[in-house]
């Protein structure tokens, strides 16, 4: 598939030279830093040396004082407190962090994770009824609740207070909970708006520590949970998230909690495998998510709060098996969907969106399937299945296109829908599917641009191969952790000659490049890009788009270029 290379704007020469001189780096490093908002010695120091002392005062968040007072009241009166969270990675890590921490200060605790298939997303009436029956007086809702207006009122009528800790955008009405913690409330002056749900739970515990003179290092022991949430929920890794992720990765790589250590081992990450954001996103997060997709996410929380290494190993192995099952279900269903689209090739070539439906597809993998189809076709996609007589679906978008608004234009055909720019869920009756498909295709075609249908790659800089060396890469590594708004740097080099071209494992491309006879030679690896083999052999002069990484082989470490895309130049 053709890709669109988008070059970041090169900063002014004066800015680059000023920063390069201030922190003693070369101009290319300085240019990348200025692009990321690092323009002075002080901002560079904060970027390269994050400090937990720079975390914001949690009491700047609207509702925090009330939330802490209500929690303290529960502890003083020995009330039963329920820690409630969503069934995904952010929700389960939130529960594990808050429940695990409060266990040391309040024995009358339990936690609750809704059943994805029976109760659905967010706060459920089933949970409130259960809590009332069991005598709970306070529910702390994590990673959900900001739109649960009626259910919060219902809980109040049963004598249950709510502290809502959420990070999603509020609706027109904020629930009348005892306290609502969400920095995205329009009248909340908290300086950082992009915390994960687990991050909001962390701030509540941080405030509780400050108010009660508790050593914050006891709370910082939970940063390994928090970085799993930050990585998996794809929140921007800047500001406070960058500090929390930086120290969370240190904790994860040196003294992880028993449950995460067991999960990393079962996922194949050895002691030598330093965990980073990418490994969490692709290796750990999907395993935790798989439990809630196919079974019940309570099992994931049990693993994350485990204190016995043998039990943790057993939990991790079960979760690994569930994830393998999820991969199989997802792979089979995705192949079916791709076959359906191939059968309708002329129609699909003209369409600017994709809607596919099969009644037997598993509800828990629809979002993953939508993401897989976008990898293939790069257009807004909705995948539907049948559940209890209605069609339920999950949608994913392409960068820059507002999927939620396109679905909202078809609202009269839907039973319910919700979501945001990049992801959404919806429910409709079977008889409305043909018209919904037609109207959704029209809505997307009306609003999407031709550029948005071409996958983008954002390029930091053009580099000569002789600019790449050990010192350059050492500074690149210090720019981690990478993620949204602080992505791993991507480079382009011109006029390269490809040599020694080969295929690995029938699908990966490997070759060497040099710019001219005296330039250094680097190995290039293109994962899943074996289809370029014959064309590259015939036209070895290229422009290469890549990131730089270390390759470990037989005890030796070398730098290699990880191919993102290439363009063929005239011979």
Write down how many β-strands occur, each being a DSSP E stretch of 2 or more residues: 18
Here the CATH topology of the largest domain equals inorganic pyrophosphatase (n-terminal core)
Which CATH class of the largest domain is shown?
Answer: Alpha Beta
Q: Based on Cα principal axes, name the global outline.
A: globular
What oligomeric state best describes the polypeptide chains here? single chain
Helix content: 40-55%
State the major sheet.
5 strands, parallel
How far do the termini sit from each other?
23 Å
Query: Radius of gyration from the CA trace?
Result: 25 Å
Instruction: Compute the average pLDDT.
Output: 94
List the helices and strands and how they pair.
Elements: E1 4-7, H1 13-23, H2 27-35, H3 41-48, H4 64-77, E2 80-85, H5 89-102, E3 109-112, H6 125-134, E4 136-142, H7 149-157, E5 161-165, E6 179-181, H8 197-212, H9 216-220, H10 223-232, H11 239-254, H12 258-266, H13 277-294, H14 298-304, H15 309-343, H16 345-350, E7 354-357, H17 366-377, E8 381-387, E9 390-396, H18 403-408, E10 416-419, E11 423-428, H19 433-447, E12 456-459, E13 461-462, H20 470-478, E14 491-504, E15 508-514, E16 522-526, H21 533-538, E17 541-553, E18 556-568
Parallel strand pairs: 1-12, 2-3, 2-4, 4-5, 5-6, 7-8, 13-14, 16-18
Antiparallel strand pairs: 8-9, 9-11, 10-11, 14-15, 14-17, 15-16, 17-18
Helix pairs in contact: 1-2, 4-8, 5-8, 5-10, 5-14, 8-10, 10-11, 10-13, 12-15, 13-15, 14-15, 15-17
